[in-house]
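Quick one - first record:
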Amino acid sequence: MSKPLIPAAKPLIGRAERKAVDRVLRSGMIAQGPEVAAFEQEFGEHFVQGRACVAVNSGTAGQHLGQLAAGVGPGDEVIVPSFTFAATGNSVALTGATPVFVDIEPQTYGLDPAAVEAAITPKTKGIMPVHLYGHPARMVELEQLAQKHGLDIYEDAAQAHGASLGGRPVGTWGRFAMFSLYPTKNMTSGEGGMVACDGPDLVRAVKLLRNQGQEVQYHNEVIGFNARMTDIHAAIGRAQLSKIDRWTATRQRNAATLSEGLAGLAGITTPITAEGAVHVFHQYTIRVADDRDRVVKALREEHGVGSGVYYPVPNHRLPSLAPFAPGLDLPETEKAAREVVSLPVHPSLTKRDLERIVTAVRAVAKAGA
């Protein structure tokens, strides 16, 4: 009999979340209401040192509305990594601005500050670092660049709830930061996003944009969207907030166990945590020097170990975004796209699961040597 599959990711929904949903259903107030307001306040206090937060219906919506609120639009350029989910570049393009793709640094997959500076033009409005896989980008250098050139920072913290650098949380470095609350993230609201803002003007602008441009019903001030979060989703998110620190600690312990078990394995590079950084391990991402796809297939078919490849096609080569980057060469991005594999690291893993994962990777790597 084949072993049951260890999934690459596993949303954790329990009694507290079910009770929270029932509470909302009994209240009769299902659309945006008191649960959303409470979730916004609690999220801000928990993750971003009390910065005001605005809940929306997806992370992508949060990234889009945040940029619109910050004044990004046609004629502007925003510097972004290509090694990320397409929503990063999409959110820039949706404002009418131009995403400018630059290369990453290879250790933690964040924007390379030298590549960012080389890409700055008179049209550059902002820099959008992605805290990929749960590790903070090189924010000290990026903040210095932004100040030197008079640019904004817009953080894509979709995967980085609780990550920090030098004691400063992600989400507190930019004009705004977006956190995703999709089911596979470190915490979820079922679906949704949160925008952490650097001041009241930005908060009000995002709130207007998420609600058809109106603060007072039927008195629409700007052209807006329906990007509201429901109280049902907010109630789930509030329940998850009470568990996220424990889950993060478990992810970090699981990552340490994997790194110890895979240490010294030829052809495999385990993830690092930069000095002063707190990595929350949304993904535990290794590099496979040779024939990554063979490893992924063998792990699943021979050992029952799921994995994920995030992201095999860089943004600058996607048909949707390639027109913004004709002839662009990003060698570190391309190399990462060929080599990365994310192994299970989620809090549901047992000690036996972790042993299976280590044994499987070692066996597959040895077989390909």
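second record:
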Amino acid sequence: MNEFIPAAKPIIGDEERAAVDGVLRSGMVAQGPEVAAFEAEFAAHFVDGRPVVAVNSGTAGLHLGLLAAGVGPGDEVIVPSFTFAATANSVALTGATPVFADIEPETFTLSVDSVRASMTERTRGIMPVHLYGQPALMDELGELAEERGVSLFEDAAQAHGARIGEKPVGTFGAFGMFSLYPTKNMTSGEGGMVSLADDELARRVRLLRNQGMERQYQNEVVGFNARMTDIHAAIGRVQLGKVDAWTRRRQENARFLDAHLEGVATPIVRPGVTHVYHQYTVRVTGGRDRFVQALKDEHRIGSGVYYPIPNHRLPSLARFAPGLDLPETERAAAEVVSLPVHPSLSDADLERIVEAVNTVAKAGA
């Protein structure tokens, strides 16, 4: 029997284990020199040297970024509904209101027209998600934000290394958040990185992550414990040296799938952007759930459905969107399937994925 091919596969090697052991031997386990070094290296690698603050999760990064930007009760922040709930959760946690807008069908990212139609006098910001590793329409959204006098934020949880032209994601808005969860394009075990537009915003996030203080017992604001440990930072520093090769492999795998898949709608990449393929997401019309089950049961191919319930219909968030109609979001939620694209795939794995998808798609046609 063929070995099961998982939809995602975190890669942790001997170098990461040695780095963790080095931290444990040092006795400096909490936030310390490894975190500071990771921040500097991540900034240089991904966001053109903008100030970067490490936190203990991607959700914490979004939450603290919004608070540092002054978002709070009475404000509205426009977000996609077709994404993980952390995006809207972070807005709600500030006391502000998440306002859900629809997506572009080609890229699964925020629709500029829908954002424009969703704006009110209470709109404080727009927070697109670079979903699946493809940049959102940042130039157009940036122009809209400037026209209306609101802030632009970035949920770059899935988009390490993605670019529009030569400009990396995480450098368009007041802040950009990158997740370091195990299944992301690189990991620190758990954690997040917040890229900030200026030093003052970065200082506010540093205060908020550490009980409101930069110097011990001199608390300036009410803050949180959202620090990253040196253990996690040590893992992340090692992964920084590997992520570019992994991204190239993801892109090569995606090109192979593009060239050989039949019967499904493969990803559309906008001209001039760099897609880093956190997920390789296709559309299956009619019988998506049967398609997923057949891949698993008949061909031992894993896949993922991200995200089957739009945020505006989740029990936790539906109160913010009574009666809201987002047709492209609903269509995507019913049709998307993410196929394996991770860098651990062999050539034989890719051929098996293609054969399985084409067989199942043909059977369901």
